[in-house]
Design goal:
Layout (H helix, E strand, L loop, with lengths): L12 E5 L4 E5 L1 H10 L3 H10 L1 E6 L2 E7 L7 E7 L4 E4 L1
Parallel strand pairs: 2-6
Antiparallel strand pairs: 1-2, 3-4, 4-5, 5-6
């Protein structure tokens, strides 16, 4: 896993979600957005496991969760759910 930012940096983060029963894969875009907002991986895991999922259309939607300890306390993620894994953008 690399959370460094740079055009030549290849980034990959994945983990398993009990809530969705799938592996979670974060895209480079998601990892770069995390770095800009100083979001750490445990917060993303809490977002996935504790957040509310809203379907936009079949196969994709949004997960959101309010983190009271953060100044920018509402965090959300665009997700693709129709794959064998859950992809976070």
């Amino acid at each position: 896993m690399s959370l460094g930012i740079g055009h030549s940096t290849i980034m990959s983060v994945s983990f398993y979600s009990e809530k969705f029963g799938k592996n979670i894969w974060l895209t480079n875009h998601a990892i770069e957005a995390m770095a800009k907002r100083k979001i750490i991986l445990p917060e993303v895991k809490n977002l996935i496991e504790l957040g509310e999922y809203m379907d936009v259309e079949a196969g994709h939607g949004w997960i959101h969760y309010k983190f009271s300890e953060r100044d920018d306390n509402l965090m959300c993620a665009a997700v693709v759910t129709w794959l064998d894994l859950l992809q976070i953008f």
